[in-house]
Amino acid sequence: MSFQVEDISLYMGDKKLIANVSLNVIPGELLAVLGPNGAGKSTLFKVMAGEYQHYSGSMLLNNTRFEDYVGRTRASLLGVLPQSSQLNFAFSVFEVVMLGRLPHSSGRIRDREIAYQAMEQVAVGHLAQALYPSLSGGEKQRVQLARVLCQIWEEVPGQSRYLLLDEPTSALDLAHQHHTLALAKELAAQGVGVMSILHDLNLAAQYADRILLLGDGKVVAQGLVDETLSADKIAKLYGIDVDVIPHPKRAHPLVVSL
Amino acid sequence: MNNSVSIGLTARELRIKWSIISLSVALLLCLVISVGIGPMPISMLDSFSVILSKVGLIESSASQAVQSIVSSIRLPRSLLAILVGAALAVSGAAMQGLFRNPLADPGLIGVTGGASLAAVLLIVLGGSSFSFLYTVFGDYALMVAAFCGAFTTTMLVSKVATTQFGTSVTSMLLAGIAIGIVTGAAVGVLTFLADDAQLRTLTFWAMGSLGGASWSTVLAAGSLITITLVFMPSQAKNLNALLLGESEARHLGVNVERVKRQIIMLAAIGVGASVAVSGMIGFVGLIVPHIIRLTLGPDHRYLLLASAALGGLFLLVADMISRTIIAPAELPIGLITTIIGGPFFIYMVIYRTRSNAL
Lengths: 258, 358
Hints:
The structure holds two protein chains of two kinds. In chain A, 33% of the residues lie in helices and 28% in strands.
């Protein structure tokens, strides 16, 4: 079982946004999607989140066609965290996180337990009664993450769950960046298939199991971290000179710009 | 389970419950008072006993004259005020959720204008061009027309304001203003075609009035408004999800297109029925949900219910003012709500511009 994306292309008018992208989000793995601005990362993300209908190619979620799912069933398998949220109504943090339980009918008490556990996971438990619009950008991002965690919190018998993250660390300080990706990694260890768009190559090197490099709407490379993060590939993709050296303390590469 | 969790929540939910209960009690109390107020004052006890006898609970001991004034003149009018207020407030609250903006009042975004134009069209040209509507729908013809007008304008505003990047509030308000002006002008043209009797009806439309209340209007409007009041709350959770954004709602498994259509339909039924019986009563849908959000929060599971109660209460009080302030003449209720609502709207715009939320 996996979230299998086969030969996806999407055109907006005559403009090609992504072309012939194939990838596989495998339960138990963290897949990082990297690439320069305008490479089509967000387009790919939105297609996989079900926001565009007019793509060509196919997507299989746990061997079932993506389009064949009922909304609620799919929502209990696939959590999506977009980059920014438009929410400006004065919900409390707890209420926002509880929205993640919408696809489920597990009962109010169970839903609350899950919501509180999810808030603890992303360290916003102390903000439970704070009003969402009053939070900082980073806090909002973590609250939204808690909401999405809440959505796919429980295992679905016989099915694998997936989590799509669009730059989940963009508004976070260094500590929370690592905390968030460690959490994503932990979810993967629990059998969730995680895909995350990232900008920081070294965060990807540290936490990802596999990396997909996207350039100009096409897959440039995908595979294990050591295979994909090579100096020449990065130089070609981003147009800057880099060196890739072994991390002094850890068993993954370190990308340094020259 | 975490103890502090359950306690904190129960307290908040208790507050919400109590607010809704006390709103309902205030509404009933106000109903009794409003029935007593008028050229011939009636004691609260008598009013109450006639209302109860009307429901069939007791035999009223009030005099025949009092009974007939209450039951055939004042009670239907007060009930209509409650129905229209509830419908406008709930429709407003739901549209604000749909557009993710607390300024989306049915009046401001052109919906009442559209409903009113359709209704005026029917009044002025009804005898000739649209007579089939009367044969098909009978007493409901005006409401059907108003509903069509409300539905069409909401769809139009929604289409204009929604791009692939989401709903633009600026476009929504601008489209609403434009539609309001156009419908206003069209109504103006129609007034030139109208005869004297029609002209009187049209004036009543433009300013909003509950003066036409009778049991038949209460029944007709009530049956439609009940649809909105009963079914809108079943969209509460979907509306909550929509506040996150349409994409987020979709990710949560909400069938966004269908839900939007249903909400627009229900709001149009509520606004259409209200406009058909009482004309243009502005700002109820703006003020009421805003006050509820400030006190109880934006959760639609409570917002819709509480808005219905406060909306009914608000219009009931406004109607009492309209009947008494220049008695024996009557100030159109739409003027009163607008006098209160206009400044309130300006305050909201200033407040939201300051907090950069517009």
